[in-house]
Amino acid sequence: MNQLSETRREFLPAAGRDVFLPLYDPIVSLMGGARAREELVKQANIQPNQRVLDLGCGTGTLVVLLKRKYTAAEIVGVDPDPKALQRAQKKVRRAGVAVQLDEGFADELPYEAGTFDRVLSSFMLHHLEEHEREKTLREVLRVLKPAGTFHLLDFAGGEDKASGRLGRMVNSHARLEDNSQQRILQLMRRAGFVDAEKVKDGSMLFGLLPTAYYQAGTR
Ligand SMILES: C[S@@+](CC[C@H](N)C(=O)[O-])C[C@H]1O[C@@H](n2cnc3c(N)ncnc32)[C@H](O)[C@@H]1O
Fold first, then answer.
1. Phi and psi (nearest 5°) for 73?
2. In this structure, CATH architecture of domain 2-217
3. What are the tens digits of pLDDT across the range 61-109?
4. Pocket residues for ligand 1 (CB within 6 Å)?
């Protein structure tokens, strides 16, 4: 667990521990992260000049992908981990793109209401404690503009999780038990989203790790 310097709040970092952070990008890449994020971006149907938030942006791979693809869009990433944000900043600089990166928690977003047309989030939800999830979804709803949409990608949990040894390993590290389709859709609806739905099943690690894509709208 890490702590955000000002608030001293805890969070689960990208690779579980800081010492493993340098391995995060290569491992996710080997697992098929690029294809999974491309699919999420495709589903978000982003239009030129829209404002897009990457919630739990980590080391910044998705924000760079977004800005390269939608050069006229305003891309913002938020994450509580200053070490991951440092890596994201380097990645952004190397890519020669302009992206705003902010330190913050998903359930206390440092943005005005109605700021974003799209909120995307990849592999972040399972890092949240149960009590943080609904508050996070309410925050996402708050910062979305009217007619804005939320697009979520995460490992499948609950009854949809990976089975066998791999399933046990992933579930023990993360909070995937709460990541069932039923639970996520229930939380989205309870937070006030309309048309919350699972849009697609996916997988990573050569089909061994099931993933799921969700989307929900403000009205
Ligand atoms: C597995 S990583 C995913 C990073 C990135 N979205 C990606 O696709 O590679 C999970 C991220 O969630 C962040 N995180 C953990 N707790 C969080 C919270 N309460 N609010 C926002 N982000 C959080 C971690 O710091 C980490 O960067």
1. -85, 155
2. 3-Layer(aba) Sandwich (3.40)
3. 999 999 999 999 999 999 999 999 999 999 999 999 999 999 999 999 9
4. 11-14, 28, 56-58, 61-62, 79-81, 84, 105-106, 122-124, 127-128, 132
